[in-house]
Write a structure and sequence with these properties.
Length: about 350
């Protein structure tokens, strides 16, 4: 089938263009559905007919065909002949065992707790409040404490995004000077583990909530880093009980409004004082993709920030932005030192 993704964003009239853009949410849901079914995993050894895919995934054959036909037209899969589907470089990223697998991220994006706040965005725009909080009656932090399966899906999705940015960050930012590296809110520790593996003389501290600490310890042990990396259970809004040369906040600050973000940064400042650095690893709003992620964060009560926003935020925390290292269009490293 001919790949024609450009149809989504090209049209003869403005209404046609809007029609295509609005249907992008259908494409997103279709990708999430194939991730949940594990379609890409079944194509590892070559093309497979939809009838076999339907049997393997417990799906309705005709409906699965319609789904895969759409995704083949979008270039996600390939349909060489009717009903026979194979992998593409894009769908390879949906395969569980792929080196750069993003299947967990796609599964996360299809979860009810992820999609409902986006659909409830009008609440955030009208009130400035979190659509998530309004829908579920609690913050996402509280929700994950009560819903462990959702928390596991979230953590797996965050790990998938970490894999995507790890090598890019390590190629652009040098950690060789740091003796002790603390990753605050670092999930199960994959990002910190990657740094330690590349810097064998450094020691690590993973500071996380109690419910994440045990999976983090297992992950670090499996990677042979238990002796070099301590896992400490913390509340990042309270005083942090350790010292380090550098404090990393990877996709943490953007979860919070300014008041809470300043508290987190201030606590990290105290950890690295007087000569250490703080690294905020997240988008800096400069164009479409970062602005799009900012709207996503709006629904969850967080926000992405411009370089001017970061300068203001750091200043209020007793810090100054020493430089901003652009990594990809999705993420930068905002480096701060004591002002």
């Amino acid at each position: 089938m001919e790949t024609n993704t450009k149809e989504l964003y090209s049209a003869d009239t403005a209404p046609e263009l809007l029609f295509g853009l609005l249907r992008a949410r259908v494409l997103s849901s279709a990708i999430c559905t194939t991730a949940e079914l594990g379609i890409a995993d079944h194509l590892t050894n070559g093309p497979v007919h939809v009838s076999d895919l339907a049997r393997a995934t417990g799906s309705h054959e005709e409906s699965l065909y319609r789904l895969l036909r759409c995704l083949a037209a979008a270039g996600i899969f390939e349909e060489a002949e009717k009903g026979l589907f194979s992998q593409t470089p894009v769908s390879e990223a949906l395969r569980s065992s792929s080196l750069n697998s993003f299947r967990a991220g796609a599964i996360m994006d299809g979860q009810d707790w992820f999609t409902r706040p986006i659909d409830g965005l009008i609440h955030s725009v009208r009130t400035g409040g979190s659509a998530f909080d309004q829908i579920f009656g609690m913050s996402w932090v509280e929700y994950f404490r009560e819903h462990r399966e959702s928390s596991a899906a979230f953590n797996a999705g965050m790990e998938a995004t970490t894999v995507q940015l790890e090598s890019a960050v390590f190629d652009r930012y040098d950690f060789s000077w740091a003796e002790t590296i603390a990753d605050v809110g670092g999930g199960t520790g994959s990002f910190l583990a990657g740094i330690l593996e590349r810097n064998p003389d450094a020691r690590g501290i993973l500071a996380e909530l109690e419910e994440v600490a045990e999976p983090a310890r297992r992950n670090l042990e499996e990677r042979g880093l238990s002796e070099r990396c301590e896992v400490i259970e913390v509340d990042m809004f309270a005083s942090l009980p350790f010292r380090a040369n550098v404090c990393i906040l990877k996709r943490v600050v953007h979860d919070w409004p300014d008041e809470e973000a300043i508290k987190i940064l201030t606590n990290c400042r105290d950890v690295v004082a007087p000569t250490g650095r703080i690294l905020v690893v997240e988008p800096v709003v400069t164009g479409f993709f970062s602005a799009l992620i900012d709207v996503l964060m709006l629904a969850f009560g967080g926000r992405e920030r411009t370089s001017e926003d970061f300068e203001r935020l750091f200043s209020a925390s007793g810090l100054e932005v020493s430089r901003i290292v652009s990594i990809t269009r999705f993420v930068s490293v905002v480096e701060g030192t004591l002002g």
